[in-house]
Every structure is written in structure tokens, then in C-alpha cells.
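Fold this sequence, please.
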Amino acid sequence: MSNERPSPPSTMRSAQYHSYGDPDVLSVNTIATPTPAPGEVLVRVVASGVSNGELRLRQGGMQLLTGRRFPKGVGGDFAGTVAVLGDDVTGFKADDAVWGLLPRNVSLRAQTATAADYVVVPATSISRMPNRLTFAEAAALPVVGQTAMIAVKDTTHIREGESVLVRGATGGVGLAALQFAVAAGGMVTALIGRTGDDVARELGASHVLHRDTPLARLPKFDVIIDTVGTELLALRRHLNKNGRMAAVTVEPPLRGMLAVAVSRVHSSRRIRFSARNPDTAVLTRLAAEVQAGHLKPVIADTYPLEHIADAHRDAERGTGAAGKRIIALTDDATTAPMPE
């Protein structure tokens, strides 16, 4: 009996869009399965996460960067198994359970992304996934987890007993930032949308406020983690002296980046834009945080690939349960990988 592993199929399913627009522009198409180049890995995707960034790309909100060449793929983070290693790739082997995300420069123009049966990614954009998670749970964390980890641990350095405001605390990044801030010993106030009180408190928030609370009524904090991106200068006024603030997004981009620049000139209470293109080292750090119990996934719902338009639609509406929306590519999405 041969021990050779079967090759991936010549074709695969991929969620794509051929024009910018609402979720109805999405379709699932059959395309050629990609082949990894040297330094790349072909991953069999088991589950893929839906992020706010991909919604904005599909809507056409970043056309200066994404261009007008179609089709375009969707999906950023994923969990799955190694199918094929490109030349010069070390540290992984076939069938390893991995998680990761597409680099930004790839995701902006990719014709097929992680909402597909297979995805090609640089070997530097994956790591072994935490063995305590299912594939769906793992796919919920790479984008939001690394963003929150860097904001809390590397940008603001939250310390025991500090007062912390997490704005947008029941969004994907906000839920992760809330958990990291609590794990660091912060006394966290969660500023949330219409729903999510129970989730925020369950994850350790000391206080919960709703987004209709006027910013002027907020007390002052040692640290602010903002995941919304608007009114940054107004929000900065609620920092204590020498307080720190991290913004993980800015809306609109030009005005938001101007606010970040102004804060560096006129006060010690600086706003820092917290963003980084993650790599294996960052994902390995994130896996260790999960293993330590500092971060757990929160999943709003899971959808088959054929219902990806529904997933995007629900994410845009922001209704229903708090957490990440997951696309299941296989029946294995709700199972954990077998230990080696």
C-alpha cells in the first residue's frame, strides 16, 4: 500500500466578488487550486473568519489601494491543515494544524483569499494553532487577537490596578482587548453597542456603558483602547495625566491620522496608532496567550461557505450575539485537531 499523500484537487471553491457593493455581489465560484511558490504554504482551510476590514474592502471603501481589477477574494484569518509545502519551507510538515492570516499587501488585491477550500500564504504568516481550540475557534482569533495583544501589551503596557476604557468592547478586537486588559490587572470599563452586557461582564469588565453615553460624561482613565476610530481627540481628553491611548483603526482615515499626529505635539497624552503586519512570531505569542487562558474566542455564528453573503450581511448590521462570524469550509470546523 502506498504511503503517498493524495494531491490537492485541481479545482476548489472560492468566495469572490466581481464588483464592489453590498453582500449580494458575493458568489462562490470554482477556480483552479493554487500552487505554493518557494517560501509559501498551501493550507487546506477548515474555517475562516469574517472581519470588518474585508467588509470595507468589498464595499469599495479602499479602492485607491485595491484597484478595479476583479475578481477579488474575501477572508483574512483562517485555521486549517498544511496541504503542500513550497520549496525552502522549514518548520512545518503536511497535516500540521495551523492558523494565520493573509498579509495586508496580499489581501488588498488577492483574487482568492481565505474564504476558500485552499489558500496559499507565506510560511511567515502562519504558526501552529493552539491545541485547546477547535478550528472554528482558532479562525476567530488571528486578526482580532494579534491586534488587541499589540495594543494592550506592546503599545499601552497596561499595569495592575490601572483604569482602562475599551471602546467598542463587544466587537471582535474589543472583546480580545477587554480580555487582555483584565488579564493584565486593569480595571476595565467596557463601552459597548446595543447588546453584549452579559458577555462583557463575563469576560471581566468592572463597568459597562452603552455607546449612547455622551463622551463628555465619561470619567478619566489611565489607558484607553479605541476600536471605533472616530472622535479621537475628544476621547483623549478623558485620559489622566501621562495616560496612554491606542487606536486600532481611524475613521475617516485622513482625519483620524491627523488626530494621532496632533496628539504627539500638544500633550503627553499621546494617541498611538496600533497596527502591525503579523508574522509567525506574533502568532506564536498569541497561541501562548490562548494556552495561558488569557484569551478565548467569542463566536457569534457559523455559516457554510455558500451562505457567506448572509455572514457579511449580519456582520454589517451588527445585530445578534457579540463576537466573530465564522465561515466553515469543512465538517471538521467544530472539532479540535488530533494531538501529535
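The two ends are 23 Å apart (CA to CA). The first strand starts at residue 11 and ends at 17.
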